[in-house]
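Technical note accompanying the year-one report. For the benefit of new consortium partners, we illustrate the data format agreed upon in the data management plan: each record pairs a sequence with a structure-token string. No post-processing was applied to the example shown here.
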Amino acid sequence: MLRLIKFLKPYALMIILSIALLFVQANADLALPDYLSKIINNGIQQSGVENAVPDAIRQSEMEKLFIFMSTEEKARVLDDYIFVEPTSPDADQYLEEYPALVDEPIYVLKEDDQVEINTLKPIMGKVLVVVSGIEQMIADPSRVPPMGEGFDFDPSQIPPGMDVFELLGMMPAEQLAQISTRINEMFAALGDNMINQMAVSAVRAEYEALGVDTGKLQTDYILRTGGMMLLISLLGGACTIAVGFLASRTAAGAARDIRKEVFKKVESFSNAEFDQFSTASLITRSTNDVTQVQMVIFMIMRMVFFAPIIGIGGVIRAIDKSANMWWLIALAVVVLLGLILTVFSISLPKFKIMQSLIDRLNLVTRENLSGMMVIRAFNKQEDELERFDKANRDLTDTSLFVARVMVTMMPVMMLLMNGLSVGIIWVGAHQVAEANIQVGDMMAFLQYAMQIVFAFLMMSMMFIFLPRAAVSGGRIADVLETETTINDPQDPKQFKDPFVNQIEFRNVSFRYPDALVDVLHNISFTARPGETTAIIGSTGCGKSTVINLIPRFYDVTEGAIYLDGNDIREVKQSDLRDKIGYVPQKGMLFSGTIESNLLYADENASSETLRESADIAQASEFIFTKPEGFEAEISQGGSNVSGGQKQRLAIARALVKKPPIFIFDDSFSALDFKTDSALRKTLKEKTGDSTVLIVTQRVATIKNADQIIVLDEGRVTGKGTHHELMESCEPYREIALSQLSKEELA
């Protein structure tokens, strides 16, 4: 996969934007359990009172609190509250919210600064609990004060009519300082969270004393927090849609670019590179393999970037809710990682095998479809069915094995998640009973644990798909990184003007890649303008190999080929092939019409040129017997025309190009002798000064050639005209006599 990373560079901005959106989405998802916790803790359990710092408090109640505060704490509190009297100019703006202001002054919190509130919570919480406890004890002397046993205070000893807080306020400063110290010692073991919970009821009682509608306070808090959850959910949903869109565009765009580069690379391959990859494998690499890479790019952008954010964020927030239950998440993660690694180690080797099996299935299918006539002719349908069935079963068995391994993950995951939920509820219930956490915090912890497990679940999905995509990416990269053996020179030469279409072979030898011996040895001859040069020889002697060296389908191993006085390796391949009209041994037609196939040589060719080329190639006789004429359909590979018609259309296509050089690689083999003779006669008249090279095994086709090259086992054994070779070249004479009578050869 890393070898294909360059294809993601054009989409870097989209990837960065998707990561930013994923960060927003993750934070939105992580915020929801916290808001749920607030609804349960503050909205339901605490009746909408958020903390131990009241927004407003009566003067009489504040003075009771001051009794148990140190001088520094009292100064801090007074600095954060505004004193409002019934006669104050701004009393009207508070009167509606706090009706008790009519009867006595109140203190109002200056601003909702969370940092300052967090500072005030332990100060206000402790003294509110103490004052509330004393008030409850006065109302019911049998109750033990909340500050613990041993607090030296007996309400029965207070003189009648004497206010207990007035009495406490009359104590010396040293004694009050001792009381404050004792209070701090007693509350030190409880923790700020527990103190805050204990003080909330006192704050709610104070709000009721101020005339605040506590029912409305609770409803407003729940609606306000629920509204924030709704907005956050909508934001997260919008980010999810946006990331999905960006990930899809990036993955599809990268896949398109990869397919384009693979096709472009394959187009630059010479025959040497094609020998390294089968056609079926190249098709699989540009389709199935690219699809695997596309899917993983989408999943990486959608899940892999998202999972770490949600996982790490979930751990941080979960520990913040309850640090005592972290081991539950750690245990679940360890079990999950063990499962993922097990599945990964089993699946990876199978994914590598799967891609090879897909290649094999494509190969068998392609051979069966293209060789159907041969299969039927030899009654091999049952054998080919068994061959296909074996390839199909091998792929199916491997796919099923991988699928079975993967499907075991989901039930194990569900078991793990349900077990984790039970564990959190079990341990959390004891924590709630011991007042270490609140119910809402336990619920939030449970949700964070699920988010963490789901994050690892998403990562596990990547561990399943990434190995297969890595194999596919490596196969694609192998194609893209294949070094082409035939390349254009860095400083190419240009053909002369006017162009001299003379081809000269100078001591050319050739050896196929990885072969041990040469197949051509010291080939030398010259094909001149206006002449027909023919190459003949027995099967496998190297005739087509000689022809394939001219357009540089292969490069010579030794020696050189010159065109217009230039070594063909010193000019651009496009310039070289632009001078050649090539008709291969197997006439290849493309799906479309007869006209589109002829225009393949020159898309700007006129209708007159098409007609003339068809006439020369002896193709008009069957083209215009059809009512559609040039618009007649051609099936894929030209399967709806005969072999002779296919060859004549391929010859007509080369003639449309009107090149200075014509190469016919055994292109008359499917023609009858009458058509062959008529075509060669017309071709000789119309090609004029063109250089014509013909490869054939028919002596009748080349008997009138200006020059005949006779090959035998890769060597030139004869060179000259037909009559000269009949006298001087034994191999040629044997070939000629095996095909024609002495009278026909005369």
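Partners are asked to follow this layout when depositing records. Confidence is low (pLDDT under 50) at residues 144-151.
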